[in-house]
Amino acid sequence: MGIGYATAYRAGITPWEKAGRNGLPVLERLLDREEADRPEGRRRAIDLGCGRGAHTKLLVDRGWDAIGVDDVRWAVDVAVRRNGLDDARFVIGDVRHLVHSGVGSAFDLFLDVGCFQSLDDAGRTLMAGGITALAEPDATVLLHATERRPWRLGGRGAGRADVERAFRGWTVAEEVADDATSPRHGTWYRLTRP
């Protein structure tokens, strides 16, 4: 997973960042809801596959105690420099092995903007298991993915069935499509535990 992304980052080929920006209006609305549901107290979030940290910074700016995790050292180094956040906010780690990556535990929110869809089925199951192990009982997962397209380069894509298969014990509580006029629109899945 890391070698292909590391090469793409160094070459300046980061279409997933544009897709993340395109999904920002929907993400902002979803975060508004999460914040309304947790008006007081500590709110801990983890940005899975954080890349250069734009969404981690968004969470911090909105008042979350947020940490980003990514397995591409170069991207994490850029995240630290670019966002003005200390390096304690970012961990170089593999989302498939969250429990042992040094991110901590007891998270209220897991944010995934395109990471899950880049994993194979075994990796997705491992990631979902790690999320479950680190989640507070009332935690939420906000996961953005684009549907599978055989012609698409990079990323495997993922649909609702893929999400439900990996996240056993979680429920897709909401499904929100990005703006359909966006060239690479996708779907946000809001997962909760019953």
UniProtKB/TrEMBL annotation:
CDD domains: AdoMet_MTases (cd02440). Signal peptide: none annotated. InterPro entries: Methyltransf_25, SAM-dependent_MTases_sf. GO terms for biological process: methylation. The keyword Transferase applies. Keywords: Methyltransferase, Transferase. The keyword rRNA-binding does not apply. It comes from the Bacteria. Pfam families: Methyltransf_25 (PF13649). This is Methyltransferase domain-containing protein. It comes from Nocardioides ganghwensis.
